[in-house]
Design goal:
Radius of gyration: 43 Å
Structural class: mainly beta
Largest sheet: 6 strands, mixed
CATH class of the largest domain: Mainly Beta
Shape: elongated
Oligomer: single chain
CATH superfamily of the largest domain: Immunoglobulins
Number of strands: 35
CATH architecture of the largest domain: Sandwich
Number of helices: 3
Helix content: under 10%
Length: 456
């Protein structure tokens, strides 16, 4: 029931508590529906209810329950917001200062043909070169539309709008080339079934750009790019191509195009023709079908001659017979060559090694003999840089730090021999006494030599 019902009920209860007579109105009867305006609208009528001062009308789609629609002092209501192919249910509640009556019986009916229902008119957008406003909507969902009309205006008044296009009933999009640029445009859509007055819906406003928007920022390398300058810039709405300018002063009027032809679509450029030993200034202009943008810039730059910067982690730990990798982080020119070294000796791909000439060196099935100091050299046209050494440790699980005391009980005796051969027969990594990556007789011999002569 409508929220006001609770307030009026409280008024009636207060009157009763004070001993004042207070009678609620009688239940409305004789509720009927009839078609109006050639079936475009419906009239709900009812008989006057005793003691009623006004009425509340509730409406819902048949079978879904009713909700409050309007309050009136008359005994009829003309509903002009009913749509074709829908069945409606109406109930009437009488009211006075003492409260509300019981709801009337439900009157059920459907307008024929009813109005056309418009829904889901989405936000307008611009096409890729921003020459047309692109409109999308869902075709009429209720009522049999025979046509739709699109309208456009420069104010919120539909009366001031102009007809843009007459469209078929199933059309759900339109590209409008006639919008006024640089100001807000309003769009409306109307649909009709040929009998009822058109139903109107409106789109959110859109302001078509008057020109291509300036690129969102520009950056240029200041000496870090080898023998060239790398220039990058941000996205520009409506742009199809870019014009890059370069000068030796901060005055854009004295700058000249870097390339004879514009740069299509891309938002970066490597300027290999940049003059050396001078401070450079770069601007970028976005171009398209619309007038070009204003310049974005300047970005200050210099041609670089510095060697690359390269780094690796100081150490790497690996378990036996697992894969391990070193990773080099390098910056500088666009082309960087790598070479990896172990204990000062150059490495090449093969066996368990891969990536010896890339930024990532990997060792498959890492073995104890792979332990050592690893370094990498990064080389560009502007020089070389070395990172490292980085120590590789092959962690032998919980192996004894002193081989003769194999059972780690603080003494060297026959119990250590038994503990060693238990691991040796099971081919466990700790039994690799000579650290050659395998478990064989050489490890037994190495163990006995150390067991007899090594100190812990």
């Amino acid at each position: 029931m409508h929220t006001a019902c609770f307030v009026m009920t409280c008024v009636a209860m207060t009157a009763a508590a004070l001993g004042q007579p207070c009678d609620r109105p009688a239940q409305p009867t004789g509720v009927t529906l009839q078609q109006l305006n050639n079936g475009c609208d419906v009239r709900l009528s009812w008989l006057p209810a005793a003691r009623a001062t006004s009425y509340e009308v509730y409406r819902g789609r048949w079978g879904t329950g009713e909700s409050f629609l309007v309050q009136t002092t008359q005994t009829h209501f003309d509903d002009t917001m009913v749509y074709g192919e829908l069945t409606y249910g109406y109930r009437v509640v009488a009211r006075n200062a003492c409260g509300f009556s019981m709801p009337s019986e439900t009157a059920v009916g459907a307008p024929n043909p009813g109005r056309v229902l418009l829904s889901s008119l989405w936000y307008p957008s611009m096409n890729s070169d921003c020459t047309r406003v692109r409109l999308y909507w869902r075709p009429p969902t209720q009522g049999t539309a025979i046509g739709q009309t699109l309208w456009r205006g420069l104010t919120t008044r539909l009366e001031d709008a102009v007809r843009v296009a007459d469209l078929g009933p199933g059309v759900n999009s339109y590209d409008d080339p006639g919008a006024t640029r640089g100001v807000a445009n309003w769009y409306w859509l109307s649909a009709t079934n040929g009998v009822c007055e058109p139903t109107f819906g409106w789109f959110p406003i859109i302001t078509p750009p008057a020109a291509v928007s300036p690129p969102q920022g520009i950056e240029a390398t200041d000496g870090s790019y080898c023998n060239a300058v790398l220039v990058t810039w941000g996205y520009s709405t409506c742009a199809q191509r870019y014009r890059l300018l370069r000068g030796t002063t901060p005055d854009v009027a004295q700058a000249l195009p870097v390339t004879q032809d514009p740069i299509w679509w891309d938002t970066s450029y490597v300027d290999h023709e940049a003059p050396d030993h001078t401070t450079l200034y770069y601007w970028v202009i976005a171009e398209g079908t619309l007038p070009a943008s204003t310049p974005t810039g300047p970005a200050v730059a210099r041609v670089g001659h510095a060697a690359p910067i390269v780094s690796i982690d100081p150490e790497l730990h690996a378990l036996p017979y697992t894969d391990s990798c070193f990773f080099a982080q390098a910056s500088g020119a666009d082309e960087i060559q790598f070479r990896w070294y172990r204990d000062g000796e150059p490495l090449t791909d093969g066996g368990r090694l891969s990536g010896t000439d890339t930024a990532t060196l990997c060792i498959a099935q890492t073995a104890p003999q792979d332990e050592g100091e690893y370094s990498v050299v990064a080389t560009t046209a502007c020089g070389s840089a070395t990172a490292g050494p980085s120590r590789l440790y092959v962690d032998l699980y919980n192996c004894p730090p002193c081989l003769p005391d194999y059972n780690q009980d603080g003494g060297v005796d026959g119990a250590d021999v038994g503990a060693f051969f238990t691991d040796w027969e099971a081919s466990l990594p700790c039994a690799d006494a000579n650290r050659d990556g395998g478990i064989d007789g050489g490890d037994a011999e190495a163990f006995f030599v150390c067991w007899e002569s090594c100190d812990c």
